[in-house]
Design goal:
- This protein is mainly alpha-helical.
- The chain has helices spanning about 1-30, 35-45, 50-60, 65-75, 95-115, 125-140, and strands at about 80-85, 85-95.
- A hairpin with a 2-residue loop joins strand 1 (about 80-85) and strand 2 (about 85-95).
- The two termini are about 25 Å apart.
Length: about 150
């Protein structure tokens, strides 16, 4: 039992270090894009737009928190609100052309950084690591951060 507890403690500590490093790296990759901003933009791209309330529900965040984040993204010209064609009372958030470009730039930078960090890993090690991450995240399906670019727990 102690070995299992030690392993879980190591995993928790290393996942926390990973999340801390991800936040710091996001700030270096693009001055306007925090890890949270990147996550929200990724989700909007994946969903091809959604309401702010949908973002709040997906990430189990308070609506006021999402509202502040969205306002900052709008001010930066990365996101815009459009009327929902099916219900004109509803506004759907979409990436602007600038938002798509910034997201693509940061995504490419992140991909390069991962490739460099994992360059000396064997194919089987990478496959196992990918399988373990998929399995771990599937266990949290529907919880905070589920989906592409999910927020770290």
């Amino acid at each position: 039992m102690a070995d299992r507890d030690d392993a879980i403690e190591t995993i928790q500590r290393e996942m926390t270090a990973f999340a801390r490093r991800a936040r710091a790296t996001a700030a270096r990759m693009h001055p306007e894009l925090s890890l949270v901003s990147f996550t929200l933009l990724s989700h909007l791209e994946y969903q091809q737009g959604c309401r702010a309330t949908d973002l709040a529900a997906h990430y189990t965040l308070d609506k006021s928190t999402i509202s502040r984040q969205v306002a900052a993204l709008e001010k930066a010209g990365l996101v815009e609100r459009r009327q929902d064609p099916a219900d004109h009372r509803v506004h759907v958030l979409h990436l602007t052309e600038r938002g798509e470009g910034v997201l693509a730039q940061v995504t490419d930078s992140r991909r390069i950084a991962f490739r460099e960090r994992l360059a000396d890993w064997s194919g089987p090690d990478l496959e196992r690591f990918a399988e373990y991450l998929l399995r771990y995240n599937a266990g949290a399906e529907g919880g905070p951060g589920a989906g592409p670019g999910g927020l770290a727990e």
